[in-house]
Amino acid sequence: MTIKKVFFLLATLITFTINSACHAQTHGKASFYGNGFHGRITSDGSRYHKDSLTCAHRTLPFGTLLKVTNKSNGKEVVVRVTDRGPFVRGRVVDLSMAAAKQLGMVSQGVAPVQVEAVGHVSKRKSAAKSGSKQLAAQSVLPEAKYIDPATGKFYTMSEWKERGEAARRQHLAELEQQHQPRYRILDSKLAAHSLRIGASKQ
Asked: Of 38, 102, 122, 202, which is the most buried if we count CB atoms within 10 A?
């Protein structure tokens, strides 16, 4: 047997083993990080944030995008692999708190899921150089959402900025209206009227 054939056979076996392992982990149970993990360094060197859409997986490369479906209610979420785990028999993925909330599994703690790799996060520059819109789309995760205690609704950071800017403009308009100088004038009947600058007599 030639060296080429040996290498080909080894490559085929490795590919088959990897594919089989990934397929075996497609279905299983998902858990999620407890609040005590917030701010800790993950295996890829990033810092875990409970409001980010990330997860831990035992074998898939960091940056892999996974679509996780809760088989109990059909809810889905796309997360990015940033950590290693879970190391509990039967569990295939460990989700961030934000991802667990989107799947509606916080009260249960563990949920049966289907996990599917849907892409890989790459740098925006690489996506631009490739000229592929599809690659660029795969490189962008859904924005993390944060709850508004006053309304109970979730907003992304861009939505928060838009709401803040709208509130600021409204506040400035109200202040401007309240502080416009008034002038007192007397009509022929000596009745006092209040006029704003540029407004007609009331």
From this structure: 102
| Beta bridge partner(s), residue 113 | 28, 70
Instruction: Please tell me the predicted confidence (pLDDT) of residue 180.
Output: 65
Residue 111 has a CB neighbour count (10 Å cut-off) of 23
User: What is the C-alpha to C-alpha distance for residues 132 and 70, in angstroms, rounded to an integer?
Assistant: 31
pLDDT digits (tens, 9 = 90+) for 4-58: 555 555 555 544 444 444 443 589 999 999 989 999 999 999 999 999 999 999 9
CA distances from 104 to 28, 38, 71, 90, 101 (A): 16, 20, 11, 20, 5
The C-alpha angle with vertex 138 and arms to 134 and 139, in degrees rounded to 5, equals 115
Closest CA to 155 of 143, 137, 139: 143
